[in-house]
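Researcher: Next sequence.
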Amino acid sequence: MFSDAQNVKRDQQHHYFWVLLKVKPSLVILVTLLSICLPVIAKQLFFFDIKAQPADQALIAFAKQSERTIIFSYELTKQYRTNRLNGYFSLQHGLNKLLRHTELEAIFSAQDKIRIQRRTTNNINIPTKTKLATNTAKKMASNQSAIEKIAIVGSRSIGRSISELPVPVDLLSHQLLQTTGQQDNGRMLQMLAPSFNFPSSSISDGTDVLKPATLRGLGPDQTLILVNGKRRHHASLLHINTSVGRGTSGVGINSIPFQSIKHIEILRDGAAAQYGSDAIAGVINIVLKDSQTEGQLTASYGQYSLGDGQNIDISLNKGFAIDQDGFFNVSFSLKDHQSTDRSGLHGSCQYSGCIKQPDGSYVTSNPEEVSANRDTFNIGDPAYNQIALAYNSELKLVHGSLYSFATISERSNESAAFFRDNISEQANPILPDGKPVIPGGYLPFIDSDITDRTITLGYKTELTSSSSFDISYSFGENEINYSTKNSINASYANMLVAQGDLSSHEIRVQMPRSADAYNIYLSLHTLNFDIQHSFDNYTLTLGAELRKDRYQVNSGEQYSYYNYTQQLPPSFLGQYALSGIQGFPGISEDAQVNEDRNVTSFYLELSSELSESIHINSAVRYDDYDGFGSTSNIKLAGLWRLTDAIKLRSSVSTGFRAPSMQQLYFNNISSQFLVNEHNMLTAEQVGTFRNDSQLAQSIGIPLLREEQSNNFSLGAVWDFSQKFSLSLDYYAIDIDDRIVISNKLSPEYSPILSQALTQANVDKAQVFINGVDTQTRGIDLISTWQHPLFQGQHTLIVAANITDTDVKKLNFPKQSVLNQLSNEQLFSAQDISIIEQWQPKDRVSINSQYQQNDWSLTLGLNRFGKYTIMDGKTQTYGAKVLTDVRFEQQYSPEFTWYAGINNVFNVTPDKNTIGNSHGGRIVDQQGNEVVDSLGVFKYSRRSAPFGFNGSYLYFGVNYHF
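Model: Next structure:
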């Protein structure tokens, strides 16, 4: 960061002069001499009055009072606390006194500018007991990179820097994440970490809102999310529609206010032996801010180049000191995001009277068809409002310290479903006047109110100079309330018609247009105990963890799910009408869930220095789950320093993932629109049934068990200098008994299955099984280069990832109806393609930042590789490169403004040629074209790695206080 000096008033000279004249006239000569000399002295000496405080704030005060420009990193300097400085000092003497006993030093340039950096090795006095400790301490002290910090993930042993870990860890600072210009945490991570994906989908119910976040191409539930090193609860949502992560659940990382984040660590390695279930692909640890004094107010506005998707973001962060060493850091965020719409025109006939021509087009004589609305769908990002609060605190005691942190988020979302046509009689029944319930059709909207809360309380202390103890309790919960509006329950209209008491107009007036669909809730209680002891050359950590998961599904209003046709007498000959409110039907009382699960875990981790060049980290963990029993896992990782610049690292581990509460207990029946082999869109009543349900038991579905994995990695790190580093890692992940949701099982597959579906009153059913074995292979590359350029500083970060996942085997449950089915019937080619092909196989991210004086310019290039989607037919979408530009200027020490464009060249995915709907060409009787559309889905609604909204323009201001 940069700080410009401001004027310093020195009225003391004149004050002293008049006092001396009144007291003792004989001193007039001396005073006269001083008045001549003081202007000369003032050019070398400055009066400072700076209190002891964090170094970033102290340096701002020093710059103001000395009228000098000081260049420094907030991320680096705010870790240190300065001394009090009061009196007249030269610049060099004053800075030396101010920064004494810190690891910071001042470098003076010929241009009268001052740069603050971490002190070089020769100037740091680090007390050590052994030659090995001295060597390690010097290596840590010599690293001047602003992003080099102590790692929390990767190893529980404190004091190891990122480059000294035997496993790959990315550390992304708050400032670096902010330079991406993205609107949420998931997109920020995606732009900087190529192994992380955050794809978009449309008209996929809750998945539109809670996007599936994946690491190394695996599932959202195969990456463990931590906050300050503590396990975070999952979202209660289960992705049951056809999207990336189908059949899984993940963590809502966007519920954490970005302003509260200090940095994010990404451990790209299996870590189930260290952290437990889910850590197959890796671990993402979100570290909250811990500043004692710093405050920041941020306001930003942005919108897409097409004029929609307006986004207003206001956030505040402030740190407060508690006594001398404690802190309370609080953050607040308010977001208002409008929806985007990239839908195509409705090209199919919405009214009667269309006649198909030999060329496939239609001719209409109906004036209502000619004037019909063709912009009927809303396909894009949903609208939402979010308010979030977070705090992080620590209170020092005589022995040890108390710590606590919490996040709270309330988010209201609105996403669209499929449009119901004027002639969709099953969803929009015809009334006695010959017109449908909703003339012209209707577009249902899904409202989801998401509440996300978590709080952690803990106590840590040093038992001896080499032993420490940590105990903590965490509680987290996620609740989603779904409601459907601008819709109808079509079967209710049939009931009103059958009663014969109301006219068509009265039926339309009395038809409810909205309903509460259902509520889902998930909570997690976690109690952790950790004891750590450091010996001469190794550190031992012992721990235990007690967890309790709870999952609830609560029914909605009767109107949201009920089939009113079943109340009608057999003599009623009305048309067939769909039950439940259209767009997002509710859940009945019969499908309510209230289940919990207990988990007990014990773990041991050993980090040891076998020699000055070899470091070994090992872990073993035992977990016992209600439901499927126990599992044990191990990990061994090593780092070999070939030279001071070159290090080799490798790890091997076993892992597991327990079935999620949603996979065990979720029940639902919904209307799903699917593309058949004729590329036609059809609506079906599809039920998702838990494994202990009557339907699942009747066809022999076994209970779920844990996934099992084997991880191997091999990599190298080159630290050629303090300015340039490169890491390259190969990884192999094999997962057996991976939990997946089956294909939609049809009645024609088996007489037993047909009977079970009839009893459940659904067209098709899907169940969870330990269905597939997968194999993942990949390579990660990270390179950082920092160097001076044109009187400024240039930083270049290049990151790349190649990942390939294959389904190696399908596991059919024995003693089950499913064992008699073909591969395609049980787990379709589309289901396999979701795992193997729906995410880019390669990604490259280039982040270039140039900083000079009080301004900086950031250029980001992101390449998304090819991916293939099967949706009725198959289409491969080509690689795309997105270009982002951001300019930032520090107008004053307190005030910064910035502006940028994401996706400068308005790049979108390839146009969609499969899985489309409502396309066609219609002309009137005179041959005038009414509409000609390929369909409403201009881009694939199934998976869009970077979305399809186009260019995004934004600007904002930061005020530091």
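Model: The radius of gyration is 32 Å. Confidence is low (pLDDT under 50) at residues 1-43, 121-150.
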